[in-house]
Amino acid sequence: MITTIDGLPPALAASVSPEEHAYVADIQRRGMLPFAVTPHFASLARPEKNDPIRRQFFPDPREAAFDPFALDDPLGENCYRAAPHLIHQYRNRALLLAARTCAGYCRHCFRRVWLTNAEPRPEGLSLFNQTVHEVNLQGPLDYLAEHGEIQEVLISGGDPLTLDNACLDSLFRGLRQVRPGIVLRVCTRMPITEPERFDSETIALLACFYPLKLAVHINHPQELSDPSRTALAVCVQAGIPVYVQTVLLRGINDDPRLLADLFGECLDMGMFPYYLFQMDLARGTAHFRVPLKEGIALYRELGALISGPGLPVYALDLPGGGGKIRLHEKSITGEAHTARGAAYSLQDTGGREWYYPVN
Ligand SMILES: *Cc1c(COP(=O)(O)O)cnc(C)c1O
Ligand code: SF4
Predict the structure, then answer these.
(1) The ligand 1 atom nearest the CA atom of 94
(2) pLDDT of 28 strictly over 90
(3) Domain boundaries defined on the chain
(4) Which of 87, 89, 183, 245 to mutate to test the pocket of ligand 1 (most atoms within 8 A of CB)?
(5) Is the CB–ligand 1 distance for residue 154 below 6 Å?
(6) Whole-angstrom distance, CA of residue 86 vs CA of residue 97
(7) Least confident segment among 37-51, 124-138, 169-183
(8) pLDDT (tens digit, 9 = 90+) per residue, 135-188?
(9) Core vs surface per residue 325-351: b (16+ CB within 10 A) or e
(10) How far apart are CA 322 and CA 355, in angstroms?
(11) For residue 125, what pLDDT band results from cuts at 50, 70 and 90?
């Protein structure tokens, strides 16, 4: 894992400006999301400031800008915490925070508080060393045993593929023991950031826990390197359904033609484009936000460029805990001048109003 500017490929290291140097040097003291990237993901970046890969992993001094709308718990998940590390917001599915680290950090991450406050991993430990005892499973398992209405568990984090295979095996087994047949949805970015993680042993492990699906975070066609394509194709061929989740990122993928190419390629590979997410209001991410009205217009154009099964749902997790809603022209029900600034009002599925910034 690369965690210093000197560790980057030389051309990338040379592209770092004095402002960026100063920001990275200060990142820990400021309590910001750490800087870390895999050599593989760094190798996909060109040494230009606005390169779509570089921008996703290299810390940007704009992260320190004040954002009146920023929230430490952008999805309001603390309201739905059913057990330690278990979020139960929707009746028949729950989300387990099974890991507290990733194969590199995305600068747009909305779970940055969970990741930033984790114990730093000891020097010299490999990437896949984490054990579930960092995350106590008994509470979540007891809760699942008592709540028969839960039919699916999203296994998230962090990136659960940072757990080693023995750990994943015992995690999956534990879940299936309290609820035979429960659907497992493993949310990961590892096929993109560290495709070597998907060796034959890992694929066999995932395939043997059917019904298990992968939800893979992919934002840009440049991320689909040959090793990543191979890893994903092998999953598909092994009968593991792969869903694609994409975050709409300003200056990175906010272009309907680019997104049509991305989802078209994913579809051709046998994956299912699932969600295109409007940015959550995590601290330090405002410079990635596409204004809501622009996002809605872009999604409309995207719909005209792509076949039905290639079109993901454009969704927003309402800031503060309103849950996911689908975004379209009629989602915006009004405009308000809140204490934080100009905001649109949007309704959750129960008709309650929530706010999202105009810009
Ligand atoms: C997104 C999410 C889910 C899954 O919702 P789907 O509509 O099934 O994709 C479940 N729990 C939480 C807390 C979520 O944020
Ligand atoms: S992989 Fe997911 S959890 Fe990890 S930093 Fe990226 S967005 Fe956040």
Answers:
(1) 11
(2) no
(3) 5-64, 77-331
(4) 89
(5) yes
(6) 6
(7) 124-138
(8) 578 899 999 999 999 999 999 989 999 999 998 999 999 999 999 999 999 999
(9) bebeeebbeeeeeeeeeebbebbeeee
(10) 10
(11) very low
CB of 194 closer than 6 angstroms to any ligand 2 atom: no
What strand order describes the sheet that includes 353-357? 332-338, 341-347, 353-357
Distance 101 CA to ligand 2 centre (A): 8
pTM greater than 0.85: yes
How many angstroms separate the alpha carbon of residue 90 from the centre of ligand 1?
A: 7
Angle at which helices 292-305 and 256-268 cross, to 10°:
50
What residue's CA is closest to ligand 2, atom 8?
109
Determine whether the shortest distance from the Cβ of 189 to ligand 2 is under 6 A: yes
Average pLDDT over residues 218-245: 98
Q: Which fold has domain 77-331?
A: TIM Barrel (3.20.20)
